[in-house]
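Q: I have two molecules that I believe assemble together. Could you output structure tokens for the complex as a whole instead of separate predictions?
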Amino acid sequence: MTAAAKDPLGYLALVLHAHLPFVRHPEHDDFLEEDWLYEAITETYIPLLWVLEALVRDGIEFRLTLSLSPTLVSMLDDDLLRRRYSRHLDSLCELAAKEVRRTRHQPQFHDTALMYRARFEKARTSYHERWKQDLAGAFGQLRQGGKLEIITSAATHGYLPLLRVNPVAVSAQIKVAVEYHRERFGEPPDGIWLPECGFYAGLDEVLKEAGVRYFFLDAHGIYHADGRTKFGVHAPLYCRSGVAAFGRDPDSAKQVWSSKEGYPGDYDYREFYRDIGFDLDAEYIGPYIHKDGIRVNTGIKYYRVTGPGDGKEPYARERALAKASIHARNFLFNRERQIEWLNGWMGRRPIVVAPYDAELFGHWWFEGPEWIDFLFRAVAGGQQVLRPATAREYLSEYPVNQEEMPSASSWGYKGYNEVWLNGSNDWIYRHVHASADRMVELARRFPAANGLTRRALNQAARELLLAQASDWAFIMSRGTVVEYAVQRAREHLLRFNDLHLMLSEGRIRKDLLSEFEGKDNIFPNIDYRIYSDSKAEPQRPRRPPRGTDLRGL
Amino acid sequence: MEVDPGLAYAYWEVTPQDRIDVTQRLGEGATASRWVLRFHESAGNAAEGRSRGRYFDVDVDLTPGNWYVTLPAGGRSYRAELGPVDAQGHFLAACQSNIVHVPRQEASSHYAPRWMNVRVGIAEAESPRHRRKVPSGASFMHRASEIPKAGWDTAFDEQPGEQWSDDRAAWQAPPVPMIEDASSFEHGSRNEASPRRSK
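A: Yes, here they are, computed for all two components at once.
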């Protein structure tokens, strides 16, 4: 059976947020951090497309909300990055073929090697022949029939609570995102994934102005609302503006996200940290890691989690898939019990909102996409308790909801702003804020620019948006590739300052402008006048901008 | 900027000349003065930022250009001033901050639900229950001054209807979970699951 529950007791809203920072380095032939995109494409986005297309093909009733951040879509659409990904995929296929030969006398690894070879070759065929390298378009096609809803996120994933000293800057992050989504997918998004679920009172007005109907919050954003809520996270709240806030369900989050109790840590699943890029001899693996000899993940891993120590057993694919099936049915079982209980006292159908990072599925949790497949098939397999739904559908059925202002919150560690504002990254904000003030002033000073001036203004807007990306602060906070994140934040701020100086002095260097445009080519149709809203004044006391005071840079 | 309900971060730009000018304006008490961040609890309108009269001072060193300040409580709004205070307590603000709204750290004790009906003027909206087109909402009260742009109609249902009772005795919601330690399970995006962590 593939039918959905006819008269369900409640709804399950599975939400995946797909995002990567804008990483594109045409000045280098092989740039390490671009691998993030290639890994995510191979291990998450392509497997997810396979799963969704199979569900559609098999007539399985499902609903999925997918947030595609503008920076991710930009990279998926970029010709240079598509060419580089194709090269990456060719290299993977070659390596996988060599692995099949290398492991032919190692039965404990050989089946897994065969699996990778088949998988990468299928990815290559799908990418080139089926989707014509257009992955965003492939997702877009799946919206037909309403089974997949695609929403957006902020333009460059700026962490909005820490940008709000300049309301125009926040508005620009939203407006650019909505417009870009409309251009790319043919219609504006109904919903938005706020970066890191970062919300504050008043942000809903910005969303409403942009035509956005709903967003998502972590649970305490709902529970700590201005007034006590009747339904907790199991029905949306309306902000005063009428924009709806959907809260993350803690129970379903814990079952997947928890490093201690979540499914991905199961001993039968593939171990992420045993990659042949680190395990095999340098001479053999050399052509498939960074050309400078920096060892990187290849995506070919032969071990399973096994247990808490270093001793790892060989990966057994069939056993892992069997476990994924069990976990999917376990997840469904728990949601059924949960919804039965909620329906018993709510007096309406509850919605259980289960949002996750898309990259968890396939990249970190190799069997994740298959878990999604098993889950939707199990949901459609005859149970009558719940039905998958989107936020949009829930609002259609329940247009009347409690009005209460949610609390400022995020889904980051400790639930507020600490990840993006601490000793490792606080230096960014004085520069980002000052740059936003300067951008607003530029937009006012040049209300109708054209030619070279307009190009410079548009590029200044791009540099500002890229400087505002929450990813840099996040990486600094996590202590991973800090040097790269610092470099990126500095570069965009310095480029913005260069452009500001050129525009202020009325002397635009065409060569420098072209260089910036070539490197940071995001949002080709951006209009700098999004920063010319005279109604919204910066909250900070106005001071004359200090020329090139780049203390800390 | 607020870090969390108990901590704020402030940054400033005070040149050496600014420091001299402001300190001198203190007059006789200038030599014994120290610089503080004076946090005023803000009331009412965010734009006006009227002080409730309550404030506290935090001694700061101007050199770093920023400071983290422990806040007495969440669920409040603050505006800060930076300036010298002399031994007699005379304070002179050199500059003033934006207003920071610090979130509460627990559920509100206030329960008086109001119900809003948001009618979308788009007929394509589908009900997940019936998988068919649902007509736009029934008639409801408008606040004329709040009629929004085309495609949005919002109104408060003064009479919410039978299915949602305001009777507190009938409210059987579970207690609000105490989110004491969000790290008990890995929130959201980046604790383990991000390709950005792989390098």
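A: One point stands out. The mean pLDDT of chain A is 94.
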